[in-house]
Design brief:
The chain is mainly alpha-helical. It has 16 helices and no strands.
């Protein structure tokens, strides 16, 4: 009788421990949904950027088209973490896919005549639709990235890093293909037909996901308080700050400055711009997938933190060198292509280690909350980069974009110096 009583709490704990985990079939379905979504996300970005540049939007107006997309990401990641913990990651995934369908179809309502007769209305309309797409993207991403933690055992740090690297790398490679797809579709069939094709693809994915994904994985057993959205360990706060600066350092030249520079200054066609952006993102994704081996940090958290500090300052170095080459007009085309290739390689390693660390610092039952908070910071960085990209290019060209990128990369590197070498789930918040 006594043994039976003792066994009951253990069984109860075991049941609770498994309640937020997920099976491999559901994980595969979530990942496939994420891949398809990112294909359409990459295609949509190039469609919007190139189509509205063609309609005469200036670089600062092009940047504003993506502002609410990033603002929506900040709010969505924060509240999405709460939604995932309260209702399960399956619910946030389905919501994200559904909203993307609405966003894609919503853009087909835009009339080209608005760009001449009502430019302010045009910008506001596209910003609003892009905001909806931003909500969709971050709900889907948060669901997929959080699911990794729920598949891997707590003590398998090396396995977690490898799985995170593969997911993150493959996602970016697929998004790169989406960049090319968007530019190709725009050049061949036009803006509206391209949107219909992408919406159909997401609709098919949503139907498949509804039929195959099971369980309430990621759902916390206790009610999540709103205050928990901001109450993070110092490790997660510091990592989130570094992440924001890291992605701002990329997007300050990537979102507006580079595509417009390639088209206007180097005379590249839309398809060539799309192909280059796609190649860069695909290569970036391949490096991310191989980050555990490249970085020498596959042994676990301590080694990952040490490696990150080195790779972060390597990124600052290449930013500085590329900025000098463009400023002094030293074989600008060659310097730009080679420099951005090296930047992408180093940036990919930094990003992949970051993506592993947020899960390594997080308990399974808090994964949706903490990943949501972390990607909120990521969205803040993209917002800063997006805004600065259009403004910097308008007033100072690509050189100013790269100078700003160097400063932000340095801020990220300094932020990494304070990261702890062990899990700090019990750490005091700051």
């Amino acid at each position: 009788m006594t043994n039976q009583r003792l066994a009951e709490p253990k069984n109860l704990l075991a049941t609770k421990a498994l309640s937020h985990r997920m099976n491999i079939k559901s994980y595969i379905s979530v990942t496939l949904s994420y891949w398809v979504f990112m294909l359409t996300d990459g295609a949509l970005r190039m469609l919007v950027l190139l189509h509205f540049h063609k309609l005469g939007f200036t670089p600062d107006k092009l940047a504003f088209l993506f502002v609410l997309y990033e603002v929506a990401g900040i709010i969505t990641n924060l509240l999405g973490g709460w939604m995932g913990s309260r209702f399960g990651l399956k619910s946030t995934l389905f919501t994200g896919l559904g909203l993307q369908i609405i966003a894609l179809l919503g853009l087909t309502l835009f009339q080209e005549s608005w760009a001449i007769t009502a430019i302010t209305l045009s910008v506001i309309f596209v910003m609003a639709v892009q905001a909806l797409s931003g909500i969709a993207k971050d709900l889907t991403k948060m669901s997929s990235k959080s699911s990794v933690k729920l598949l891997v055992n707590e003590d398998n740090e090396s396995g977690l890093f490898k799985l995170v690297a593969i997911l993150t790398g493959s996602k970016n490679a697929i998004k790169g293909i989406g960049f090319f797809l968007g530019a190709f579709l725009l050049a061949t069939i036009g803006f509206d037909p391209s949107l219909y094709i992408l919406a159909g693809l997401i609709t098919l994915t949503l139907i498949t996901s509804l039929l195959t994904i099971r369980g309430d994985f990621g759902k916390m057993k206790t009610k999540v308080k709103f205050s928990q959205l901001f109450s993070k360990s110092s490790a997660i706060n510091r990592l989130s700050f570094a992440r924001a600066c890291l992605f701002a350092s990329r997007d300050v030249w990537f979102v507006v400055g580079l595509p417009i520079f390639l088209h206007d200054q180097l005379g590249w066609s839309f398809s060539e711009v799309g192909a280059f952006m796609a190649t860069w993102i695909i290569g970036y994704g391949i490096v991310q997938a191989s980050a555990p081996r490249i970085s020498g940090a596959k042994a676990g958290l301590k080694q990952a933190v040490t490696s990150l500090k080195i790779w972060a300052f390597l990124l600052v170095s290449i930013c500085s060198a590329l900025t000098a080459a463009i400023h002094w007009n030293f074989h600008p085309t060659t310097s730009l292509l080679i420099g951005l290739g090296i930047f992408g390689f180093i940036f990919a390693v930094n990003s992949s280690i970051h993506s592993y660390l947020i899960l390594a610092y997080t308990k399974s039952e808090e994964v949706a909350l903490n990943v949501g908070f972390y990607y909120m910071a990521n969205a803040c960085g993209r917002l800063i980069g997006t805004l600065t990209s259009g403004i910097a290019y308008l007033y100072g060209g690509l050189t100013t974009c790269l100078i700003t990128s160097t400063i932000l990369a340095l801020a990220a590197a300094v932020g990494n110096l304070t990261l702890p070498n062990k899990s700090t789930n019990q750490d005091m918040t700051i």
